[in-house]
Amino acid sequence: MKIFPLLIALLASFALTADLPAADAPPIDRHALVTRHNPVLTKLDPASPLSVGNGEFCFTADVTGLQTFPEAYNGNDATPLCTMADWGWHRFPNPQNFSMETFGFKNYDAHGRMVGYADQNSSAASNYLRENPQKFNLGQIGFILTKADGTPAQPADLSDIKQTLDLWSGLLVSHFVFDGQPVDVQTLGTIRDDGISLHVESPLVASGRLAIQLRFPYASKGKNGSDWTKPAAHTTEFATPSFGNAAVFTRTLDSEHYNVVATWTPGGSMQKSAEHQFILSPQKGAGVFEFACSFSEQPPHIPPMPTFAESKTSVQTHWNSFWSTGGAIDLSLSKDPRWNELERRIVLSEYLTAIQSAGKNPPAETGLTMNSWYGRFHMEMYWWHDAHFALWGRAPMLENSMGFYSTALPLAIANAKRQGYDGARWPKMSEPSGEDSPSGVGAFLIWQEPHPIYLAELAYRASADKKATLEKYKDVIFASADFMASFAWWDEANQRYVLGPPLQAAQERFDKATMINPTYELTYWRFGLETAQQWRVRLGLPRNEKWDNVLQKLSKPLVVDGKYAFTESTPDSYTNPKWNDDHPAVVNALGVLPGPGLDVATMKNTFDWVFANWKWSATWGWDYPALAMCAARVGEPEHAIDSLLIDTDKNHWAANGHNFQRGGAGDTSLPLYLPSNGGLLTAVAMMAAGWDGAPKRNAPGFPDNGQWVVRWEGLLPLP
Q: Cis before residue 637, ω within 30 degrees of 0?
């Protein structure tokens, strides 16, 4: 499902959102709000290429509007130029039949009971199961630019570069001069199919010195999803229909098959130039050329392709509707000079999550721009990617991928049963089937377990049809709660329920074999079980006795010197510097969560210490919105803004709106990090629209100091 068909649902969702704008403020000019943050590039920037897409497909371009100079984007800190789809998964051959069913699980002591976990090791089985399936680059589309002397273009040969992403219209407009000749390009990410449409104007077209090249790689485990060194490992069948001006490419990579259809202005011709490489040459004499290319898992079907003008109208209609509905936050009347950067990050995050995170599967941490962790999605990050859609009046874009839980439910139930638990134990690092993968950390995480309960609750709060929403997600919610209640261990000596061991906390710095009762997870257990009980009541069912028993007797978080310890196993949380590292997840308990069972004053002390003392170089992009949500709930809105804009390496945002985390050539390279974008949108929605029990004033999470004027509409509060 593309995001275009979701617009009707979004309009219905928009009508449900709350509005409490600043008193006497003028209405929001949404066009001005969006377009003042159009990204503009004036040079080739490998750290900030621009992308177009539709939520299930993404095409990332260089400053030419296509993927003309991919080598310039292959550095350790660069973002590669890829073409990726939500459906584009590949498995390398598996002659040894490795599977999670036969994986050698490692036993860990769970209070005297040995429980098998898919602990990562160096075996071939462990490596294969982590790496497969992986996303891959569907193809590369670039210009071939030739100088008058016959030599090919290099990046340094371009001048007078100006590339603008018109967010309001979804149009990427590129201008440059090559060999003394201007080139003007318009690039669209089509809405009704997975592809691009292109319009080019240049004297180079007429002189035959501009052509388009299509190249198809084999899959790889690297961040660009491309292996150009194995032409014999895949096949590309090339055919031209009898009516001309089109080509069909049938692609086979091991067990993966897909099709590519290209069409172009009459008079052009497509020729094979090398194995898996093809050149489209426009007809000489004309200064304008148009081209479209679509990718699909389905058999090729070639009706008359839309003209560029028709595609442009469709794309503009979609993006105009997207920006005109749902939530909006305008900060332009503020006096605090930081307003513009914060507003820029908000607007660009709306765009980036719409084109990368609204598919039928949960997104990878780098979305559809490139591969991180082989393109597999991390279920503990799903809330950070997509929860904001429900708060911004775009709940259907969240629910488009929530069907994954129903798909994965049988495997999650089997995983819990294998370990001796009830209910469903959700995977950490997964793929469309719901299969988990070996990990020394992920297999032991538990904070993804309540996520489906929280996300379903957000969908319920945004829904026009409450009963249908309850029926849609009840099985997933009840299976999640059953596991949570089963996982809690009864400590007879102290008459309480305990979480762990084994477990790994969201702050991934503790001994998974011995740790118990991390504060965030304890609070999430309480919130999740109580929310699941509310769903039973809404459905006319009695409260679940076992869930209530766990709720009543669940351990309380440890308090040390007036602050919440990170875990019960670390009473030295605030004195041992080795714990001042990674995610400050303790603040999530009253920030991301409404903090059931917590004391606000104690959490305020906790937040103040974290804000003053944390090792920011070890944090991640979603930690800053987590801090902001905690600051808002404990009554420190100035620190909420400070948290969102804290000056540290992992909180710098590029011109394209992406948030760099770390470089490298491997699968964990993160030149962009979409949980940052989604987390920011959740935090600012909460800061503007409030939360259950928030102070009764406009934008209760923003400072009330005369420096901020927050106009907002179409947002829902956080629980």
A: no
Report the C-alpha gap between 268 and 291 in whole angstroms. 10
* Closest-CA residue to 401 (of 93, 56, 109): 56
Q: Is the pLDDT of residue 243 over 90?
A: no
pLDDT band at 2 (very low <50, low <70, confident <90, very high): low
Q: Please name the residues in contact with 84: beta carbons below 8 A apart, sequence gap of 6 or more.
A: 57, 58, 135, 136, 137, 138, 225, 368, 369, 370, 375
Nearest to 667 by CA among 136, 230, 49: 136
Contact assessment for residue 270 and residue 280, using Cβ atoms and an 8 Å cutoff: yes
- Concatenated DSSP letters for 491-528? ETTTTEEE--SS-B-SSTTS-TTT---BHHHHHHHHHH
| Residues 214 and 140 sit within 8 Å (Cβ to Cβ) | yes
How many Å apart are CA 355 and CA 492, to the nearest integer? 51
The band of 43, judged by pLDDT with boundaries at 50, 70 and 90, is very high
Alpha-carbon span 694 to 226, nearest angstrom = 49
The yes-or-no verdict on residue 21 having pLDDT over 70 is: no
Strands lying side by side in the sheet with 210-215 = 140-145, 210-215, 277-281, 269-274
Tokens representing residue 57 in the block: 């497909």
- Cis omega (within 30 of 0) on the bond before 501? yes
Q: How far is CA 179 from CA 45, 70, 156, 209, 459, in A?
A: 21, 20, 11, 10, 54
297-332 pLDDT, tens digit per residue, is 988 777 677 899 999 999 999 999 999 999 999 999
The confidence score (pLDDT) of residue 23 equals 52
Q: ω before 577 within 30° of 0 (cis)?
A: no
For 416, phi then psi, to 5°, come to -60, -45
| The 3-state secondary structure of 82-108, one letter per residue | CEEECCCEECCCCCCCCCHHHCCCEEE
* Chain center to CA of 409: 22
DSSP 8-class letter at 68: S
Specify whether the CB–CB gap between 603 and 589 falls below 8 A: yes
- Whether the CB-CB separation of 362 and 680 falls below 8 Å is answered with no
pLDDT at residue 58, rounded to an integer: 98
CA-nearest of 678, 677, 529, 502 to 593 is 529
Q: If we measure between CA atoms, which residue out of 458, 455, 454, 478 comes closest to residue 539?
A: 478
- What lies within 8 Å, CB to CB, of 18 at 6+ separation is 689, 715, 716, 717
Angle at 68 between CA 187 and CA 655, to 5 degrees: 65
Instruction: Tell me which amino acid residue 609 is.
Output: W
**DSSP SS3 for 315:** helix
